[in-house]
Amino acid sequence: QTCALPIFQVTLPNATTAYTRDGSFVVDGEGHLVTTSGLRLDPDITIPADALETTIGKDGQVFVTTAAAPETPTLVGQIQLARFINPSGLDSEGGNIFIKTPASGEPINDNPGNNGVGYLIQNFLERSNVEVVNELVALIVAQRAYEVNSKAIRTSDEMLSQVNSIVR
Predict the structure, then answer these.
(1) pLDDT at 47 over 70
(2) Could you give the CA distance from residue 124 to residue 80 in angstroms, rounded to a whole number?
């Protein structure tokens, strides 16, 4: 069984493969689809210089409309997602970049929508998996528990101090 956590495969400047959850892509000066930090998507997708609009389908297919054919979208590439048996085994390099390790296992590359990988949605942000209200309530509960434990230790210390003074 594999985790359905979608991860994009990118190429580092030293030509090694890395992985990121950063799905905010831009087109660099050479027309390549890259992350905001400039890492090329793998497999590499090149957007033509005369592209008017770029569209990424939920299945990861990248289409462009050009000035020469504004009514006919042209397929220029396919975004693939990687999955790992143990994504927590990936080694964090910082900047939302991860490297595979023996603990993470080998990547399983697939197109979005296949085998439960999930879909891509253009111009959307992934929602956080943290509910702020619940976390604040948990923080307050933890703080109150700390205060109670601190008072109990202080009271116990005072009682021991009184016992010691009685014994003398």
Answers:
(1) yes
(2) 18
